[in-house]
Structure formats: structure tokens, C-alpha cells
Automatic annotation (TrEMBL):
It comes from Pleurotus ostreatus. InterPro entries: Ricin_B-like_lectins, Ricin_B_lectin. This is Ricin B lectin domain-containing protein. Pfam families: RicinB_lectin_2. It comes from the Eukaryota. The lineage of its organism: Eukaryota, Fungi, Dikarya, Basidiomycota, Agaricomycotina. Residues 8-77 form the Ricin B lectin domain.
Length: 149
């Protein structure tokens, strides 16, 4: 059962590649799979929506979402305004969740069948089974921003 806490901060860890959903520092827009470096750009605040959850990036204040219609290959991006996701446990992997575009079977997917290479795009794709590259572990924690002077 999904047990998100309003205001809590999470990392999305891909169940197949074991990398995290990262708001790219290259363009401050693309959401990519990247190794975990505990960065604020990899940290998402959970906010309750009307019928789901909104995820706000701690580094930029952008929201995890899509622009336009959901279809296979639509990129997940850092966007404004807030975007609501339906978060559901995966039947085959009970310690993971899938993030669905509301009222669709399109869910967040680490592309190229879960390619672990840093920079692999995260997109939405129609749910498929087993689809481990579409399953995510939500790791709650507190991460500090580190600044170099």
C-alpha cells in the first residue's frame, strides 16, 4: 500500500537500474536516470493533489510531469504548473510503485528497457508486465544542500 507523507521528501529509485530520477542540471528540464549523489535535483517533495500526488523538485521548485498528451515516449520533465500523478503499488513487486498519468495506463518509465547509463531519459509508456523499468522505490529521507565556496 502506498504510504506517502504530505511534505515528505523522496527519491525515486528505479527498480531495474537502481538509479534515481534526476532533474538534469544540463537543461533544468529533462528528467533522466542518474547515479544517486543525494542532490537536491534528485529530491522531490510529495504534495497531496485532488485525487493523487504532486511532486515538487527541491532544487528548482519545478514539478514532475508531462507537457501535452500522454503517449508512448512522452518525456517526463520539470514543469509548471503542478502535475498530479496516480501512485499505485505494483502487483508483481510490492515494494515498488508505478506513477500513472491520471485516468490512463501510461506510467513513468526509464527508457530503453531500463538502461542504467547515466542520462537515460525518463518518459511515460503504456504499462506492461513485468515492466520493472516502470517500477520505482520511493526512498524517504532528508537531504541537505551542499554548497562550495
Amino acid at each position: 500500500m502506498v504510504n506517502l507523507q504530505p511534505g515528505a521528501k523522496y527519491k525515486f529509485v528505479n527498480a531495474k537500474a537502481n538509479n534515481v530520477a534526476d532533474l538534469s542540471g544540463g537543461d533544468n528540464k529533462s528528467i533522466i536516470g542518474y547515479s544517486d549523489h543525494n542532490g537536491a535535483n534528485q529530491t522531490w517533495e510529495a504534495l497531496p493533489g485532488g485525487n493523487g500526488w504532486i511532486f515538487k523538485n527541491v532544487a528548482t521548485g519545478q514539478y514532475l510531469g508531462i507537457n501535452g498528451l500522454a503517449r508512448d515516449g512522452t518525456p517526463v520533465e520539470g514543469i509548471h504548473p503542478p502535475f498530479e500523478w496516480h501512485v499505485k503499488n505494483d502487483e508483481g513487486h510490492p515494494d515498488t510503485v508505478r506513477l500513472f498519468v491520471p485516468n490512463t495506463l501510461f506510467n513513468m518509465d526509464l527508457s530503453d528497457n531500463g538502461n542504467a547509463t547515466a542520462g537515460t531519459k525518463i518518459q511515460v509508456w503504456n504499462k506492461w508486465t513485468p515492466g520493472v523499468n516502470q517500477c520505482w522505490r520511493l526512498v524517504q529521507g532528508t537531504w541537505a544542500l551542499a554548497f562550495c565556496v
